[in-house]
Amino acid sequence: MIKNNSGKLALTILSISLLTVMAGAAIAPALGIIRDHFADEPDMLIQLIVSLPALFIIVTNLLFSSLCKLMKTRTLALSGLLLYVVTGVGCFCVNNIWMLLLLRALLGVSVGMIMPLSTGLLAYYFPPEKQAGLMGLSAAMNQMGGVVATLLAGLLANIQWNYAFFVYLLGLFAVALVAIFLPNERLQGGSGPSLKLLRRFHPSVVGMFLVMILFFIYPTRFALSAHTGTSLSNNAITLIMVGLDLVAFLVGLVFGKLMQGFRHGMKYIAPLCFMAGYLFLSAGSSLPILLAGSAFIGIANGIAVPYLNTIASMKAGKEAASTVMPLLSAALYLGQFLSPLLVTPLGALCFGASDMLSPFKAGVLIAAVYLLQSFLTRKKQVVE
Question: pTM value?
Fold first, then answer.
């Protein structure tokens, strides 16, 4: 039954990947307009609109094995997706920053329910030889969700700031596919997070944490710095950010072939591209520099996420969905949540609080740490 419907099943699982990036980054292009609407509120609260869902995704991920015991896969996926649509679109209806943040927190719970399924089910239903290609497609779908949602959110925000939240209606597409094609099975294994599990998968978990610390400098700072430091319109800023997602999407499409051709060197490409991207963004605000920096960061993110998911899923096997994938998801969103809280003070400490580009300069330093971590933990490994 699964073999005969493998294409539809893969599409269904990939449709979940289309949505997960939208928890925070989709609203990033509208952040300048949202800040103008909530002009009396501190900048940190405005940034939390993007990063707060990540904290609640982490908490839900840590409880994911318990959710798997309570609900089978289709029930769990549908519950998470419906909550996703309701809380995402619900932000349109509120005009209070605290109510807005509450709904963003509940959105985080919904993504925490579906994120491990978006990659773990690929390891559960498909053999290892297909996983690199599928993980690349999963990352590509994730970035395509970013392309579509970022573009729509930026355009909708021009009508009025809260119209940007209508992008979460895209979740209804995945609801329909999951209801029709996803089997309602109980996932194998998984006793919850543990030090033993973390020791086993720490290269991937720490790597994912560093990747998200690095990547999330971009959506939390780019629109704000470009809005302030350039004469670019909100539409132009949105298009540049969409371009980053498009680059990452294209890299994800060819990730399987890249793993076959450059397997031994893949671990170094992402940290080097992050370093190059933030070096460009640290150099100024001209359009060519902004485009080059965004392109390198798109390449880095398009490689790093499927690489870490692939090597971890190959090691974990069919139990990946209920063991390592919740850990990777928690690390991913912990990095997203902590990124502005760590990078802004680090940039101010090293380069001065008045330097608008200091977060990008801090990104260069963190990319060097990621490069060192990749070398020390994977120098003898092809896959884990």
Answer: 0.78
Q: Which two tokens stand for residue 240?
A: 């540049």
- Angstrom CA distances, 289 to 31, 280, 365, stand at 22, 6, 19
Angle at 156 between CA 155 and CA 158, to 5 degrees: 70
Q: Are 216 and 23 in contact (CB under 8 A)?
A: no
Q: How far apart, in whole angstroms, are the C-alpha atoms of residue 107 and residue 53?
A: 6
- Please give the tally of structural domains in the chain: 1
Count of other CB atoms within 10 angstroms of residue 230: 15
Q: Which helix (H) or strand (E) holds 111?
A: helix 97-125
The distance in angstroms from the start CA to the end CA of the chain is: 31
Q: Is the pLDDT of residue 380 over 60?
A: no
What pLDDT score was predicted for residue 1? Answer: 43
Q: What is the dihedral of CA 194, 195, 197, 198, to 10 degrees?
A: 120
Q: For the chain, give the mean pLDDT.
A: 85
CA distance readout (Å), 228 to 156, 234, 324:
21, 11, 41
Task: Note the pLDDT tens digit of each residue in 238-251.
Answer: 788 878 888 988 99
294 burial class (0-12, 13-18, 19+ CB within 10 angstroms)? Answer: buried
Instruction: Tell me the per-residue pLDDT of 154-170, one tens digit each, with 9 for 90 and over.
Output: 788 888 888 989 989 98
Domain limits for position 40: 6-378
CB 241 within 8 A of CB 28: yes
CB neighbour burial string for 141-167, b if at least 16 within 10 angstroms, e if fewer: bbbbbbbbbbbbbbbbbeeebbbbbbb
CATH number at residue 19: 1.20.1250.20
Half-sphere exposure of 336 (CA within 13 A, CB side): 26
Question: From CA 326, how far away is CA 330, in angstroms rounded?
Answer: 6
Residue 113 CB-half CA count within 13 A: 23
Residue 265 phi, psi (nearest 5) = -100, -5
Q: Tell me if 121 is assigned to some domain.
A: yes
